[in-house]
Amino acid sequence: MSEHIIELKNVTKYYDDTLVIDNVSFYVNKGEFITFLGPSGCGKTTTLRMIAGFDLPTSGQILLNGKDISSLPPNKRPVNTVFQRYALFPHLNVFENIAFGLRCKKVINTYENDSGDRYTKKEKLTKKEISEKVRKALALVDLEGFEKRSISTLSGGQQQRVAIARAIVNEPEILLLDEPLGALDLKMRKEMQIELKAMHKRLGITFIYVTHDQEEALTMSDTIVVMADGVVQQIGTPTDIYNEPSNTFVADFIGESNLFNGTVTGEREVRFCGKTFQCVDSFEKNELVDVVVRPEDVHMCAPEEGMLRGKVISVVFKGIHYEITVQVGKFEMVIQSTQSRAVGEEIGMNIDPDGIHLMKPKYTSNIFDGVITKRNTVEFADGEFACDVTQLYPGSRLNEEGDLVTQTGEVIDPTGAEVTVEVGMNDITISDDAEAGGTTGHIISIIYKGDHYRLIVRTEEEEEDFVFATPDLWNENDYVSVIIPPEKIKLTLKRTEEAKS
Amino acid sequence: MIKKCIKATYVGLILLLLYAPILLLAVYSFNEVDLIGTWGAFSLEHYAKLFGDPVILEMIGNTVGLALLAAALSTVLGTAGALGFYYSKKRTRTIMYGASQIPVINAEIVTALALAIAFVTVGLEKSYFTLLIGHMIICTPFVVLSVTPKLKQMDNSLYEAALDLGASPTKALFKVVLPQIIPGVISGFMLAITLSLDDYIVTSYCKPSGFNTISTYVYNATTKGNAHTAETLASFWALTTIIFVIILAVVLIANLVDGKKKEDRT
After folding, report:
1. Would residue A119 count as lying in a domain?
2. Does A293 reside within a domain?
3. Which of residues 34-53 of A touch B (CB under 8 A)?
4. From the list B157, B172, B179, which residue is nearest A85 (CB)?
5. Is B167–A75 a contact, with Cβ atoms under 8 angstroms apart?
6. Do residue B163 and residue A83 have CB atoms under 8 angstroms apart?
7. Mutant choice from B156, B160, B165 vs A, greatest count of A C-beta within 10 A
8. Which of A102, A82, A92 has the alpha carbon at shortest distance from A171?
9. Residues of B in contact with A104 (CB under 8 A)
10. Contact between chains at A87 and B171 (C-beta distance less than 8 A)
11. How far is CA A88 from CA A53, A93, A152, A423, A483, in A?
């Protein structure tokens, strides 16, 4: 069994009042190359900074070799970082930059005095030791002879190498890399990826790597931690994450994918795109699921031989393959193939059972905490919506004055009643007009699902999320208002309220 | 061509307006006669008197000594302050930085009067110490003002990188942060020296009696005329000229060095 060199236990981090890391737990094996992957703002860099010691967790623990280091300052941790923009010291030359850590270090040397007693002394490294170590580190990053060069005369790639040398010269137990290749051009990046991977093998230390580039993560890592919204979405090997994403976010973020809403119709059988397919995942019958089909798992054939049939609507040459988009009824299917097809051509498509991956949907409906107002509307998610309050009490109705009358003729005032609000995923529409709906927010996620988009709109104050399907394409970060027809707002009194009455 | 001529004339005119009074003084500092407007003959008499008068020499010493001491202390205080504000939380930073800049905007007479009253209230006799405090109060905000932009320009991860490599916070400050902001610290120091050198208002309110800087001495000499003859006054023309030449030289050298640095970079 491998050792856990770093373990995060229920780590939560707030910046002022903003939640950036929400109860994250995972461990890193010794000697592993682990990557935190996610879109910007997902909390991956914050997680790295907490391991480095630049940020302290608001709650939870960080264990290094089983010891709690949550509040240890960064200079006391056996961890070194390669920063995003390198953070080389501009006033020092290459040699002094790399020697900086060595000069701070004290080692314990054992001596024997004349009478034969052994004693230890904490000593700084000698000049000779330092220059020897710096020379070795420079050799490791292929920068021999650069000792006297000033930082400002180095190219981006060279600065990158100096930054790596400066970190590894201290022989850390863990090397943290915060998007280290982000500032390099594509070719340079590919080269450095291979070099970093080779360096990881040679040094044998643990690498923790942060990136938003999924391809980089898949190429380099032993393990990938996919993060979004301050939460770990999935942890696994690159193959696992690619082949068996745990939710639509991961499927959409890692690689290309076709996402559909499906229904389980039987044992290892699922229905989507209007057809029933054999699959390998087992779910309850009639359960609604998210279906992922990777573009390379869709095989093209003659129209009459395929399970699906459609018309090619676009073909794009991508170098090693063609990306072919096919209209299947009202759904769109993207295919990657080495063979090309003509636009307008009718083709058939087959999908093998192991090319179909089913996932439990993360969102099935929207549930909020709301309060009934004086005007018989309901307040939730930073807004106020017209609703039907009579559904709170069976058989009740509104009289001419607008008061709520129960079945027995008793007039009650529901003002201030705490309710649970439920809205279906197909009952929400949005508008550019901020005044049109009950509340407003920004679109934080858009995922295409074959024939519609699944959007998430987050309100500004309470940060409540509305998840819903729409046929229209919007842009991420659009500011929109959320419209819900009154009859689609399902209200139930909270239990505490019921107990009181 | 004509456009060029007009441009040159315009700039020349402005420069002449700016420097005419000082040039006038400089010319008459070489006059044998002690009167402006009457040219006797060329002479270095005023300069000889200037360096021969022990009272004047002592006062020059006072001024320069005070300026150096006040500037040095203000630089330490201002730099520490700027660092403190910069690494505070955003709200604290905004409030503290704003508060530190009030003396810059505030009328100097108000600062001076407030200081005088404050010293009386706490029972401090006017002394060299109170004078030093007065000057530090004028200088420190300017040091903060010149250090802060350098801090903002600095890559924030440099400090973190130093910690990451095992440096203690103090070591990181002196070995990494300070070298990045040192141009700001130096210009703050220079600014503080010039502010302290020519200050009159705060000096006159905070100084002990019998202690004089150039500005208070000249002011007393010109207004009250007591015990000072026109002769002593004339030696100030010489002093003014010397100060002007020194400053001109410093500015020219500074510009030259700066220009060369920029050339090297491109």
Report:
1. no
2. yes
3. 52-53
4. B157
5. yes
6. no
7. B165
8. A102
9. 165-168, 171
10. no
11. 19, 9, 10, 53, 51
In a domain, A60, yes or no: yes
Give the total number of structural domains in chain A.
3
Answer whether A181's CB lies under 8 Å from A156's CB.
no
Strands A33-37 and A206-211 turn out to be: parallel
CB atoms under 10 Å from CB of A211, counted, come to 23
A177 close to B (CB below 8 A): no
Of A53, A87, A105, Cβ closest to residue B161: A87
Cβ <8 Å between B164 and A74: yes
Note whether B186 contacts A: Cβ–Cβ < 8 A: no
- Separation of alpha carbons A142 and B51, rounded Å: 65
Asked if B160 and A178 touch (Cβ cutoff 8 Å), the reply is no
**pTM (global) more than 0.90:** no
Chain A nearest-CA residue for B158? A87
CATH class (in words) of the domain with range B58-224: mainly alpha
Domain at A230, CATH number: 3.40.50.300
Tell me the C-alpha distance between A289 and A272, whole Å: 10
Residue listed under structure tokens 């009490």? A393
Range of the domain at A262: 256-359
Does ipTM exceed 0.85? no
Q: Indicate the residue of B168, B175, B176 with minimum beta-carbon distance to A75.
A: B168
- Asked which of A243, A270, A292 is the last residue of a domain, the reply is A243
Q: Which residues of B touch A88 (CB under 8 A)?
A: 161
Place of tokens 């401090």: B124
Long-range contacts (CB closer than 8 Å, 24 or more residues apart) made by A316-322:
A321/A296
| Structure token pair of residue A396 | 């009740």
Interface test with B, best of A56, A96, A100 (most B CBs within 10 A): A100
CA-closest candidate to residue B203, choices B59, B21, B79:
B59
What are the CA-CA distances from residue A439 to residues A91, A160, A430, A431, A457 (Å)?
Answer: 53, 47, 10, 11, 10
Q: Has residue A226 been placed in a domain?
A: yes
Closest CA to B189 of B46, B62, B75, B113: B75
Q: Mind listing the pLDDT tens digit of every residue in chain A (501 residues)? A: 458 999 999 999 998 888 899 999 999 999 999 999 999 889 999 999 999 999 999 999 999 998 999 889 999 999 999 998 899 999 999 999 999 999 988 887 888 887 778 888 788 888 999 999 999 999 989 899 899 999 999 988 899 999 999 999 999 999 999 998 888 888 888 988 999 999 999 999 999 999 999 999 999 999 999 999 899 999 999 999 999 999 989 998 998 899 998 899 988 899 998 889 999 888 888 888 999 999 999 999 998 888 999 999 999 998 889 999 999 988 899 999 999 999 999 999 999 999 999 998 877 778 888 888 888 888 888 888 888 888 888 878 888 777 888 888 788 888 888 888 888 888 888 988 888 888 898 988 888 888 888 888 888 888 888 888 888 888 888 899 999 988 888 888 886 544 444
Q: Are B70 and B196 in contact (CB under 8 A)?
A: yes
A413/A460 same-domain check: yes
Q: Name which of A360, A321, A356, A361 is nearest A341 in CA terms.
A: A321
3-state secondary structure chain B: CHHHHHHHHHHHHHHHHHHHHHHHHHHHCCECCCCCCCCCCECCHHHHHHHHCHHHHHHHHHHHHHHHHHHHHHHHHHHHHHHHHHCCCHHHHHHHHHHHCHHHHCCHHHHHHHHHHHHHHCCCCCCHHHHHHHHHHHHHHHHHHHHHHHHHHCCCHHHHHHHHCCCCHHHHHHHHHHHHHHHHHHHHHHHHHHHHHCCCHHHHHHCCCCCCCHHHHHHHHHHCCCCCCHHHHHHHHHHHHHHHHHHHHHHHHHHHHHHHHHHHHC
